[in-house]
């Protein structure tokens, strides 16, 4: 059981949690809301205890500002999550899924939410190497040293050349259409190929049975998995988009030789990825900027250290209207 004791949230804390929860209404939110009464009160209480600032993924270990060391309501737990090698000290509601913790508390949008009921696999991450649905695993069960890996933790460097073989194969063999399911397929494929280095199509079908692609991109998903498997076995592979690989690899490896790279978190996230794309266009043309990538919440900048330093990059982003942490 968790640590008991009363902790009355301030009105400001309750307001903060309510605003955060409003950002996305999941099936769980709906059910909790429909339950009304005591259930809702408990969630608000728990939320107040965990209402906190978003944290920087670059931080080695992060402790939320409202965690404290005092007693918690019986519905809360203190956990130390290890996500992509970064320690995260948090207080979570007992009913909070790993997906909710990653997105609402940590601002990590590394897995997609599809069904929110363990049926589609879009939200899959690895826990100690096994693919699990993050929409269904409770964060309160994961604070005891388990190693959580998301799709963001697979790559070892920038660009296509730095991707995990499975990521690279999905990208260059077209194992996706809309991409909603892709992160889940990649994580399940990594788990599969770790266990079975040379799978048959039947074994791939079994290994990916928990993942659904509504676009029906299964044929190229299978191709991607077979290509990735071959590369992971050390074989020479040719991707369907091999010419693109040659071009992208050439441009992607250049920054590592001359650039300094860092991921920043936007103080205010963009509403859509299209807004992010528009924002970075002029940035790419600035002298000293070598490469830009990112999402609505984060931006990874590679710059020429002979022309810029980190503070100047931060100032540049702020001058364009989006300060970073
Ligand atoms: S969103 Fe988790 S399985 Fe569908
Ligand atoms: S690519 Fe669209 S759901 Fe799979």
Descriptive report:
The protein is an alpha+beta fold. It folds into three domains: 11-151, Ubiquitin-like (UB roll) (Roll), CATH 3.10.20.30; 160-242, [2Fe-2S]-binding domain (DNA polymerase, domain 1), CATH 1.10.150.120; 259-319, Gyrase A, domain 2 (2-Layer Sandwich), CATH 3.30.1360.40. It is 39% helix and 15% strand. It has eleven helices and nine strands. It has helices spanning 11-22, 27-35, 37-50, 98-105, 165-172, 182-195, 201-207, 218-232, 242-258, 273-284, 310-319, and strands at residues 61-63, 76-83, 86-93, 124-127, 130-133, 147-149, 260-265, 289-294, 298-303. Strands 1-3-2-6-4-5 form a six-stranded mixed sheet, with helices on both faces. α1 crosses α3 and α5 (165-172) packs antiparallel against α8 (218-232). It is globular and about 55 Å long. The two termini are 36 Å apart.
**Mean pLDDT, all residues:** 79
How many beta-strand elements?
9
CATH architecture of the largest domain: Roll
The tally of structural domains comes to 3
Tell me the structural class. alpha+beta
Backbone shape:
globular
Q: Can you identify the CATH superfamily of the largest domain?
A: Beta-grasp domain
Helix/strand order: HHHEEEHEEEHHHHHEHEEH
Write the layout of secondary structure elements.
Elements: H1 11-22, H2 27-35, H3 37-50, E1 61-63, E2 76-83, E3 86-93, H4 98-105, E4 124-127, E5 130-133, E6 147-149, H5 165-172, H6 182-195, H7 201-207, H8 218-232, H9 242-258, E7 260-265, H10 273-284, E8 289-294, E9 298-303, H11 310-319
Parallel strand pairs: 1-3, 2-6
Antiparallel strand pairs: 2-3, 4-5, 4-6, 7-9, 8-9
One FE2/S2 (inorganic) cluster binds at residues 113-116, 118-123, 133, 135.
């Amino acid at each position: 059981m968790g640590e008991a004791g009363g902790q009355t949230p301030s009105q400001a804390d309750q307001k903060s949690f309510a605003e955060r929860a409003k950002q996305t209404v999941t099936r769980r939110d709906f059910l909790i809301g429909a339950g009304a009464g005591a259930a809702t009160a408990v969630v608000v209480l728990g939320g107040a205890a965990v209402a906190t600032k978003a944290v920087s993924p670059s931080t080695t270990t992060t402790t939320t500002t409202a965690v404290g060391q005092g007693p918690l309501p019986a519905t809360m737990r203190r956990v130390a999550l290890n996500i992509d090698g970064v320690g995260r000290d948090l207080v979570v509601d007992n009913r909070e899924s790993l997906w909710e913790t990653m997105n609402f508390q940590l601002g990590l949008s590394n897995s997609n939410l599809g069904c929110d009921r363990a049926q589609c696999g879009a939200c899959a991450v690895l826990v100690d190497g096994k693919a699990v649905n993050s929409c269904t695993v409770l964060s309160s069960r994961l604070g005891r040293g388990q190693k959580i890996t998301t799709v963001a933790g697979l790559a070892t460097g920038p660009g296509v050349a730095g991707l995990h073989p499975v990521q690279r194969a999905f990208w260059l063999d077209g194992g996706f259409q809309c991409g909603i399911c892709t992160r889940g397929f990649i994580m399940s494929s990594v788990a599969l190929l770790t266990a079975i280095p040379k799978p048959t199509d039947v074994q791939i079908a079994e290994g990916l049975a928990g993942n659904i692609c509504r676009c029906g991109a299964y044929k190229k998903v299978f191709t991607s998995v077979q290509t990735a498997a071959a590369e992971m076995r050390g074989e020479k592979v040719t991707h369907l988009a091999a010419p693109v690989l040659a071009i992208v690899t050439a441009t992607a490896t250049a920054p590592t030789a001359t650039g300094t790279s860092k991921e920043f978190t936007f103080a205010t996230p963009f509403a859509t990825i299209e807004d992010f794309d528009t924002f970075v266009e002029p940035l790419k043309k600035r002298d000293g900027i070598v490469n830009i990538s990112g999402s609505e919440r984060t931006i990874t900048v590679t710059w020429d250290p002979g022309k810029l330093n980190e503070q100047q990059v931060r100032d540049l982003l702020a001058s364009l209207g989006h300060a970073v942490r």
